[in-house]
Amino acid sequence: MIVEYVRYQIPPERRDAFEDAYAQAQSALAASPHCLAWELSRCAEDPMQYTLRIEWDSAQGHMQGFRKGPDFGVFFAAIRPYVGDIAEMRHYDVTAVRGRKEAAVA
Questions:
Q1: pLDDT tens digit string along 1-45?
Q2: What single DSSP character describes residue 96?
Q3: Would you give the distance in Å from CA 18 to the centre of its chain?
Q4: Where are the domains of the chain?
Q5: How far is CA 32 from the centre of its chain?
Q6: What does pTM read for this prediction?
Q7: What is residue 104's DSSP assignment?
Q8: What pLDDT digit, counting tens, does each position of 68-93 carry?
Q9: What is the rounded distance in angstroms from the CA atom of residue 84 to the CA atom of residue 100?
Q10: Residue 106: what pLDDT?
Q11: Beta-strand pair 86-93/2-9
Q12: What's the CA gap between 82 and 30, in Å, rounded?
């Protein structure tokens, strides 16, 4: 598995349209056998900053499978107006340092 992080800077007047675009684009992510999970987050301290986190089965699955497959056209059509707002786009390998606390049972 590999994780792709995409950082965006979106002005307030484009925020709703940006989030709507990703709401539409997620159908393509859901349809791809290479996409395992995704999440779009808005910064609480600076609402112009967004981070998209996508888990892919592999870098090749993302770059060759998804980007050259039928689902990419649907995805890109939805998010195309925001490509110029990308501040950074990179793939990261997951390390062994991770965890999750389980919810307390009442």
A1: 999 999 999 999 999 999 999 999 999 999 999 999 999 999 999
A2: S
A3: 12
A4: 12-46+56-93
A5: 13
A6: 0.90
A7: P
A8: 999 999 999 999 999 999 999 999 99
A9: 35
A10: 67
A11: antiparallel
A12: 20
CA 37 to CA 26: how far, in whole Å? Answer: 10
For residue 10, the SS3 value is coil
DSSP string across 12-77: GGGHHHHHHHHHHHHHHHHH-TTEEEEEEEE-SS-TTEEEEEEEES-HHIIIIIITTSHHHHHHHH
Instruction: For residues 85 and 7, give the distance between their C-alpha atoms in angstroms, rounded to a whole number.
Output: 8
Q: Which residue in the block uniquely carries the two structure tokens 């792709």? A: 4
Which amino acid type is present at position 92?
Y
What whole-number distance in Å separates Cα of residue 56 and Cα of residue 54?
6
Q: What is the distance between the alpha carbons of residues 86 and 90, in angstroms, rounded to a whole number? A: 11
**What is the token pair recorded at 77?**
């059509």
Task: Enter the tokens of residue 64.
Answer: 């060759």
Task: Give the pLDDT confidence score for residue 7 in this predicted structure.
Answer: 98
